[in-house]
Amino acid sequence: MDDVIILGAGIVGIATGIQLLRRGRSVTLVDKNAPGRETSFGNAGIIQREGVRPHAFPRDLQTLLQVGLHLSTAARYEPLALPKLAPPLLKYWWESSPEHYRKVVQSYAPLIGRSILTHDDLIKAVGPEAEKLISRYGWHLAFRSQDKLEKEALKAKADHEQFGIGYKVLDWAGLKAVEPNLLGGLAGAIHWTDPWTVRDPGALVSAYFGLFEQLGGTFVSGAANGLTEQGGVWSTEVDGRTLSAKQAVIALGPWAPDVLEPLGYRLPLFVKRGYHMHYRAPEGIALRHLLLDPEVGYAMAPMAAGIRITTGAEFALRDAKPTPIQLGKAEQAAKELFPLGERVDPQPWKGARPCTPDMMPIISKAPKHEGLYAGIGHAHHGFTLGPATGELLAQMMTGETTAIDVTPFRMGRFMGA
User: Whole-angstrom Cα distance, residue 259 to residue 31?
Assistant: First the structure.
C-alpha cells in the first residue's frame, strides 16, 4: 500500500506527486491518458506571473450583447447547455461584481505570486531538457485602439504599484521593433515582463513527469473507477486492479465531479472549453513572442509545432461535440496582424478548463473525509498554478506550514463551511 494515490496526471497531479516524493511519501499517479495530454497540453504556454486578476464575468452591456448574439470571438455559448450551466454562471456573474472581485484579487494574488518560483524549482530540478523550452522575455497584450491601450496602461500601472508586476508600454513603433513581421493594425501593447513563456507546454509537463518517475513515483495507466474509503484506507480500481493508499488526491480537472459527487461533494463547477491550431509561417518570417489580441479574443504564440492560435472561452457541456467556431474567427483576425500560413494539425485540439464561480481554485482537504484532498478548478491558470498547487497540497498533507494562506481556496466555501 502506498502513502498517496493521485487521480489525474496533468500538471497539478504530477507537481503534487513530485512534492510528496520529495517529502518521503510513496506515490502512485493514475490517469487513463498519457501524462500531461489533456488541459495541460493545449494552453497558450504562459507561466502567468502577472495574472493577479482572474477572468471575471463581463458585466458591461455591450460585451454581454456580443456574447448573447454570438458576435464575440472571446466567448460563446451553446444554447442547449444553458439549463445546466445557468446556476454556476449566475454565481460567476455575482462574484464578478466590483466589491466581490476586489476580494478575489486580494486572495488570488499571493497564489499567482508562487507561480514562477515553483515552476523555476521544477525546471532547475529537471535541467536542460526543461530549460530549453523556456523564454523569460514575457509577452505582449496588444491593442488595436489607442484608447483601450491607454486604459490598460493605467491598470498595469496600478498592478505594478500594488503587486510589483513588471511591465512596459510599447507604441506601434516599439512593438514593431521587437516583432518586425507584424503587418499593422495595432496601436501598441503592454509588454508584461515578469511572466515566462513555454514553446511546448506538453513537453514541459512531460519533463516534470520524468522527474516524478526519477524520484521513485509510480504511474498506472487506466481509468480509475471512483474512490472508496474504509478504515482510513483509500482505494480505487483500475482495469480490475485495486490500488490503496493512506491518502488520496483528486487532480482530475473537469472530470473531478465524476469522483467527488459519489462521495457527497456537489460543487458548482463548470467548464470553459477552448481550442487550438498550429500554423506554418512563410519562409523567413517569424513571430518572436506570444501576442494576445484581447479586443478580438485569442492568443498567437510561437511553438515548437508552429504558430499556435488559442481561443477564448466556450461555455458548453464538457463532453459535447467540438464546435470550433471561435477558432475560425480567431484565424481570420490573426491574419490581419501576421502572415499565417496553412494549418499544420489535421483537426483542432479541444480542451476543457475546469472553473469555479468565484474564479479561485480548490486547493483543499475535503471537509467530510480524512485523508482526501483536491487540487481543481484553476480555470485559465491551470498551467501557471500547477506547481504552486502541488507545493501547497503537499505541505497540507504532511502537516507543514503552507507557503501562503490557503483558507480562500478551501472546498468548504461552497458547502457552507
Answer: 13
